[in-house]
Write a structure and sequence with these properties.
248 residues, 3-stranded antiparallel sheet, alpha+beta, 5-stranded antiparallel sheet
Length: 248
């Protein structure tokens, strides 16, 4: 059976093989991280959200791999690019999908706050900024909502029947939905889509009846977590976001 490469980085190769998608990790990729990703996917499946079914975790040519159901369709990102006149409609759809995710709970998922504390600690930000970010994070309300963690429009597939499937659950946690909104806002900004990011934030706050300031409090925290990816092209932008920290 022929393989169709869908996405490739140093850490992983994602390819289609018939009615399945294989996510194969590099030889030195953490076994614990692979198994944790598969477990998280299975836990999200149990919430009833529309996501591809997990088939198996296996080894291919000595490398760990996760095998899931293939979903035919176009990503929301593709649709936005092909139909720019419908962008507002697609952003509304993105927020509706996110609200559905946030309406679910999966109490065995890792906690978002724990993950963010760990990320802040592992940055090379100075101790004063790290302390301020940890303090700000501690002060946020404790929620137990399913947070996708990477809800970029490229991670939503719309089928021919107009069904939405959400993919890539590697970063899922349970926590505060405003953090997940701040993360989407950040991702759109990093794409250079400032207008789309502002429209998204306005739409999220309107539909969820959330104060914009409440989401904005998370922005330095999610920017710090993104810093740990070590992308030099993003560094200046992220540091500017972190620089909005208020000192009292």
């Amino acid at each position: 059976m022929s393989k169709e490469i869908l996405y490739q980085t140093e850490a992983k190769t994602i390819y289609r093989e018939g009615d399945k998608v294989v996510k194969m990790f590099s030889h030195d990729y953490s076994k614990a991280n692979v198994l944790n990703e598969a477990l998280n996917h299975a836990r999200v499946e149990e919430t009833g959200l529309n996501i591809p079914k997990l088939h198996e975790v296996t080894k291919i040519d000595g490398n760990w791999a996760i095998v899931i159901e293939y979903i035919a369709g176009k990503t929301l990102q593709q649709l936005m690019e092909e139909n720019p006149d419908k962008k507002e409609e697609y952003i509304e759809r993105l927020v509706d999908i996110q609200m559905n995710i946030l309406s679910k709970s999966a109490l065995h998922l890792n906690k978002l706050k724990d993950k963010m504390h760990s990320k802040i600690s592992s940055t090379d930000l100075n101790a004063t900024i790290r302390y301020e970010l940890h303090t700000r994070l501690d002060a946020t309300p404790k929620h137990k909502k399913v947070c996708h963690g990477d809800l970029h429009p490229s991670n939503i597939i719309i089928t021919e029947n107009d069904e939405a499937y959400i993919i890539d659950w590697a970063h899922v946690t349970q926590g505060n939905g405003a953090a997940d909104a701040a993360r989407v806002y950040l991702l759109l900004n990093l794409d250079g889509d400032r207008e789309g990011a502002e429209k998204y934030l306005d739409t999220f706050c309107r539909k969820t009846d959330t104060a914009k300031q409440y989401v904005q409090k998370w922005m330095p925290i999610v920017a710090a977590s993104q810093l740990t990816k070590g992308n030099e092209k993003e560094k200046e932008f992220l540091l500017n976001w972190i620089d909005v920290v208020d000192y009292e």
